[in-house]
Design a protein that fits this description.
Layout: E1 3-4, E2 18-19, H1 39-67, H2 74-126, E3 132-134, E4 142-144, E5 155-160, E6 172-183, E7 186-189, E8 199-202, H3 208-214, E9 222-227, E10 248-259, E11 268-269, E12 279-280, E13 291-292, E14 303-309, E15 320-329, E16 335-338, H4 339-342, E17 346-349, H5 357-363, E18 371-376, E19 398-407
Length: 408
């Protein structure tokens, strides 16, 4: 047990008023006497207990001081009450300010919600009303048009997302088109704009609404486009297609592919060993190669030479062929037609009699990515009548360089 001592009995080196029982000089925190050799060890292992006890005594003295504090005078009591009232008023004001802030936040939040709902409603109202489209990409779609008034503005919506290169103005796109007119409760399919097979279109050379909607799309995308008269055929319409000046147009467009004006053959150059044929120089992207006509007479039969061997699939009869080309008259060396000069690749159905026979016979079986030289006699070109508007006589042999870009 430990006991309080008078100040003069305090152990040297320890807090005043504490002493341990037992052997003289024993540390104050020991309950049993210990030898002098054990003092250092006891000090190391029980110092935490010592400081806990000291802090406990400090707390006891503080509580005693509070209990023994004399009662406040009348003036002090009045001041305490005033301070208390002020604290209460300040707390009430702070609570009122918090409530005001909460109300303001609630009002602003409600306003933002109302505005957001309004914008959402406007966006919803701007969509084509209930046009339903079903069917896989590249297949004939099923389109259901409601018997209501069509929207007044151009609308374009991506139904299927593609991952090809974005289409830009001036590019050639290959599309599957399905088109309808929409005039209130009446609508009909436009067979002239729905051929059921891939079609080449140059963006910037169709109706304005279709041009705007195709720009930025990607190969592999399906678009639903609603075109009002002002963005279609205008107030005059198009009588050949069966479109009146008040008809809204509805297109479902599958974007099968796109080609920039710089598209060209890509493959392995092939040596040309034949003599008496034109030679073809190299060219930069987007420009036609130079064709050099020899000073000899032209061959009497169709000549086909592969200048660059592509690695793509072979061109099949009846397919849509996408190509860059340039045509030169052997007799004059004059260029009479060129897709490079037109600023975009061109599309032709090959092997079906829609182009000159020299193309049908000379390009079917070649591989996509190839560059081909064609020397076409009159019988396989424009025949004995020629083509006076471009300077071709009925006896002229023609020379073509063709870059095969793709088929569909």
């Amino acid at each position: 047990m430990r006991s309080r001592l008078a100040p003069d009995e305090a152990l040297p080196g320890w807090p005043e008023g504490w002493v341990g029982t037992g052997a003289p000089g024993a540390p104050v925190w020991c309950h049993m006497p210990i030898t002098q050799t054990g003092v250092a060890r006891a000090h190391l292992h029980t110092s935490l207990e010592y400081w806990v006890r000291v802090e406990g005594k400090k707390a006891d003295r503080a509580r005693g001081d509070q209990q023994e504090r004399p009662a406040a005078s009348a003036g002090q009591s009045s001041k305490i009450k005033r301070d208390h009232r002020r604290a209460v008023v300040a707390a009430r004001l702070a609570a009122a300010r918090r409530r005001t802030r909460r109300r303001r936040l609630l009002i602003w939040g409600s306003a933002v919600l109302v505005v957001g709902l309004g914008i959402g409603w406007l966006v919803y109202e701007s969509l084509p009303p209930s046009i339903a489209v079903s069917g896989a990409f590249g297949a004939k779609p099923t389109i259901t048009i409601p018997s209501i008034k069509p929207p007044a503005n151009l609308q374009a919506h991506q139904l299927i997302s593609g991952n090809g290169t974005p289409v830009a103005k001036g590019d050639l796109v290959v599309v599957d088109l399905t088109a309808y007119t929409w005039s209130g409760t009446a609508h009909k399919k436009l067979t002239g704009l729905s051929p059921g097979q891939p079609q080449p279109l140059t963006v910037g050379h169709t109706v304005p609404g279709l041009d705007k909607s195709l720009a930025g799309s990607r190969a592999g995308s399906r678009l639903l486009i609603t075109i009002p008269p002002k963005d279609g055929f205008g107030s005059k319409g198009n009588s050949q297609l069966g479109v009146s000046g008040t008809d809204t147009l509805v297109f479902v467009v599958d974007v099968l592919g796109s080609y920039q004006k710089t598209a060209s053959a890509h493959g392995t150059p092939e040596p040309v060993t034949s003599t008496g044929l034109p030679t073809v120089g190299t060219s930069s992207a987007g420009t036609a190669p130079t064709i050099h006509i020899p000073q000899t007479g032209p061959p009497a039969t169709l000549q086909t030479k592969t200048l660059i061997q592509g690695t793509g699939p072979v061109v099949k009869k009846g397919k849509l062929l996408i190509a860059q080309y340039e045509g030169v008259i052997w007799r004059t060396g004059k260029v009479f037609d060129s897709s490079w000069k037109h600023g975009a690749p061109a599309g032709f159905q090959i092997g079906a009699g829609q182009v000159i026979k020299g193309w049908d016979d000379g390009l079917v079986g070649k591989r996509i990515g190839s560059q081909v030289l064609l020397v076409v006699p009159p019988a396989d070109g424009y025949g004995t009548s020629g083509s006076a508007q471009v300077g071709i006589k009925g006896t002229d042999t023609l020379v073509f360089v063709v870059d095969i870009l793709g088929t569909y």
